């Protein structure tokens, strides 16, 4: 079978590998349907030094699959079902896992596609516990976007920032995968949404997703515009994932007692923090990584009800991976790039 493997920094190739054995107890064999690309794939491709990994590494951290066979003792999924796959290999036994807070697992062995082999391959064996069944009305693309794109955002907005209806939120990079999900989720619950984009062309698309105010950050200082829009009050919540480039401006955009939730830090991981502003303004910061499996289920329910929808930039085959990652690196996308794994998709 085929696997899309990273063999060196910035070198990904399609390789023939052995298919999985029959599923072991508690495991399932999946036929992978679609893989969604994320910034973590760009990091892996660039060869980020902090990742402990062995090459070649099969890429792909976010995906959907169809259950082909189940191992002994599996009861949560059935053959033929479409499932969304949790992206980290968690223990399933620690207190956090037992309480459904898998992204705080004490014995996590890594993130698929980054530390461990990922999902860009025809078939894979995976613990059944890492699977969430897609409800009717959610297709293979939607299920592929539940773990990171929508699940991460559900966790950031609702579990961490505790966003409330009627609040004002600044969503950075509204054209990114998680930005486009955050605009929809916040707007649909009745928030006022301000977002930033990097081109005039993306402004219209962000408005179409429900953003009330769209700022081209290449032309305007976003923090100045945010203060103007909010009549100098600032926003209740900032949805950060850009990091170094936007951090200071994000702090200036927050109202007293405001909350900032961050993941990703795609422009750089280190920044300065004005501690006087932090305590005098009583700002609250939340670091967020991954999601709970319940966030994936919630996200797919909202897709099934038409509350949110996947925003797709392009769908490519395995041979389109280099172009896709380059476009992500240079921020030339609006929404998600997906890899088609099942040829019948
Ligand atoms: Zn655990």
UniProtKB/TrEMBL annotation:
<feature type="domain" description="Enoyl reductase (ER)">
    <location>
        <begin position="5"/>
        <end position="339"/>
    </location>
</feature>
<dbReference type="GO" id="GO:0016651">
    <property type="term" value="F:oxidoreductase activity, acting on NAD(P)H"/>
</dbReference>
<dbReference type="InterPro" id="IPR020843">
    <property type="entry name" value="ER"/>
</dbReference>
<dbReference type="GO" id="GO:0070402">
    <property type="term" value="F:NADPH binding"/>
</dbReference>
<dbReference type="InterPro" id="IPR036291">
    <property type="entry name" value="NAD(P)-bd_dom_sf"/>
</dbReference>
<dbReference type="InterPro" id="IPR011032">
    <property type="entry name" value="GroES-like_sf"/>
</dbReference>
<protein>
    <submittedName>
        <fullName>Alcohol dehydrogenase</fullName>
    </submittedName>
</protein>
<dbReference type="Pfam" id="PF08240">
    <property type="entry name" value="ADH_N"/>
</dbReference>
<keyword id="KW-0560">Oxidoreductase</keyword>
<dbReference type="Pfam" id="PF00107">
    <property type="entry name" value="ADH_zinc_N"/>
</dbReference>
<dbReference type="InterPro" id="IPR013154">
    <property type="entry name" value="ADH-like_N"/>
</dbReference>
<dbReference type="InterPro" id="IPR013149">
    <property type="entry name" value="ADH-like_C"/>
</dbReference>
<keyword id="KW-0521">NADP</keyword>
């Amino acid at each position: 079978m085929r696997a899309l493997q990273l063999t060196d920094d910035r070198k990904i190739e399609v390789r023939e590998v052995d298919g999985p054995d029959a599923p072991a107890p508690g495991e399932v064999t999946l036929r992978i349907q679609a893989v969604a690309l994320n910034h973590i794939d760009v990091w892996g491709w660039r060869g980020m030094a902090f990742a402990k990994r062995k090459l070649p590494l099969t890429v792909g951290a976010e995906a959907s699959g169809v259950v082909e066979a189940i191992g002994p003792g599996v009861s949560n999924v059935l053959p033929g079902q479409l499932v969304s796959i949790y992206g980290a290999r968690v223990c399933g036994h620690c207190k956090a896992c037992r309480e459904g807070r898998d992204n705080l697992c004490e014995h996590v062995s890594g993130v698929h596609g980054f530390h461990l082999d990922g999902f860009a391959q025809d078939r894979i064996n995976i613990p059944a516990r890492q699977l969430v069944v897609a409800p009717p009305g959610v297709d293979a693309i939607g299920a592929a976007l539940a773990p990171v794109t929508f699940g991460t955002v559900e966790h950031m907005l609702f579990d961490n920032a505790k966003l409330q209806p009627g609040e004002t939120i600044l969503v950075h990079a509204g054209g990114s995968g998680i930005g486009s999900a955050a605009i929809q989720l916040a707007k649909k619950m009745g928030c006022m949404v301000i977002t930033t984009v990097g081109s005039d062309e993306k402004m219209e698309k962000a408005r179409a997703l429900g953003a009330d105010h769209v700022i081209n950050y290449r032309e305007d200082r976003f923090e100045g515009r945010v203060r103007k829009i909010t009549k100098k009050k600032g926003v209740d919540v900032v949805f950060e994932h850009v990091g170094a480039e936007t951090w200071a401006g994000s702090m200036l955009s927050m109202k007293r007692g405001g909350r900032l939730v961050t993941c990703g830090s795609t422009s750089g991981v280190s920044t300065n923090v004005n501690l006087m502003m932090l305590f005098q303004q009583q700002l609250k910061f939340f670091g967020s990584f991954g999601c709970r499996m319940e966030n994936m289920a919630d996200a797919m329910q909202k897709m099934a009800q038409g509350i949110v929808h996947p925003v797709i930039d392009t769908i490519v085959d395995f041979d389109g991976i280099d172009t896709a990652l380059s476009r992500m690196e240079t921020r030339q996308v609006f929404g998600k790039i997906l890899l088609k794994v099942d040829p019948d998709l």
